[in-house]
Write a structure and sequence with these properties.
CATH architecture of the largest domain: Roll
Shape: elongated
Oligomer: single chain
CATH topology of the largest domain: Chitinase A, domain 3
Distance between the termini: 34 Å
Radius of gyration: 32 Å
Order of helices and strands: HHHHHHEHHEHHEEHH
């Protein structure tokens, strides 16, 4: 039964049924074409939006204004439809397409209620998404491109001549820069982001507790003294369950929406009468199965 509820065809049927119900509830055959009905749900909706914005209920006068505004909007909307102003209007088309997207999202959410087994299978399949990068704690000095014509050779020379001095003394040998001399437990991806280049990958195989290099970044050439390296780690399912659930829901929603769209698309016969080249024509017709 659960598997059946996840079938995209059922999603399609539910969407059609939902649209039919909404239409049936909002259209009364006994009403004239020009009848506009404001019921309790409309008033509640207006009041809710007002309270959300102003943090209080509207006064009688304010509610009267809201109702008048809603009626004016409905009247102008219907008159616009009579004049076919909705045709070939990109803004209206985009908005209506978005509303259909929202409907498919709502339906997907209704039928998507994963079990722990579903989430664990998803976690195992996409475990690389949740892998925490390596972490480094290290000292560094840098020889910048601005201050040295050949920063790599400068770094090698300093390492050869001063490699055995204390860490404190070593700090005086590099160029002043607006980032820390000591990094503690910084993730590899953040390190690359801060210093530029792929400095973390270069540091991967370097030894601990000694000055080594050269290591290049976006600023120049570094010498580094690594005090600790923590290998990449995969957090447990329990630790990541909330994140996994969020990712699972998102992926299932995207998959459902795509399958629903494919079902809808298959009911249309696309005709390309535009003057376009053969390659483009064939590509579009292939995509739409026409």
């Amino acid at each position: 039964m659960k598997r059946f509820l996840k079938e995209p065809f059922l999603h399609f049927v539910l969407i059609g049924f939902a649209i039919f119900i909404v239409y049936a509830l909002t259209v009364d055959d006994n009403d004239s074409e020009n009848a506009i009905i404001i019921d309790n749900s409309d008033i509640s909706h207006m009041v809710s939006i007002w309270e959300l914005q102003w943090q209080r209920k509207p006064t009688t006068e304010e509610l009267s204004g809201l109702i008048s505004k809603t009626l004016k909007q409905e009247i102008m909307y219907r008159e616009a439809l009579k004049m076919n102003l909705d045709h070939n209007d990109e803004v209206i088309k985009r908005r209506l397409a978005q509303k259909m997207d929202f409907i498919t999202s709502d339906v997907s959410a209704m039928v998507n209620n994963p079990t722990d087994k579903d989430l664990k299978n998803y976690y195992n399949k996409y475990s690389e998404r949740y892998m925490r990068p390596a972490q480094y704690s290290f000292y560094q000095i840098c020889f910048t491109f601005d201050n040295h014509s050949d920063p790599v050779n400068q770094a090698k020379s300093v390492l050869e001549e001063h490699g055995n001095v204390s860490i404190e003394e070593f700090t005086k040998l590099g160029d002043p820069l607006p980032f820390p001399f000591y990094y503690e437990s910084i993730y590899a991806n953040k390190l690359n982001s801060e210093l530029g280049g792929n400095i973390a990958e270069t540091m991967e195989g370097l030894p601990l507790n000694q000055w080594t290099g050269p290591v290049e970044s976006g600023f120049g050439t570094h010498l580094v003294y690594i005090t600790e390296k923590i290998e990449p780690q995969l957090p447990s399912f329990t630790q990541m369950k909330d994140v996994i659930k969020r990712d699972y829901d998102y992926d299932m929603e995207q998959e459902s929406r795509e399958k629903i769209y494919e079902n809808l698309k298959s009911s249309y016969n696309i005709k390309l009468e535009a003057d376009i080249n053969k390659e483009l024509r064939e590509k579009i017709l292939k995509e739409f199965g026409s």
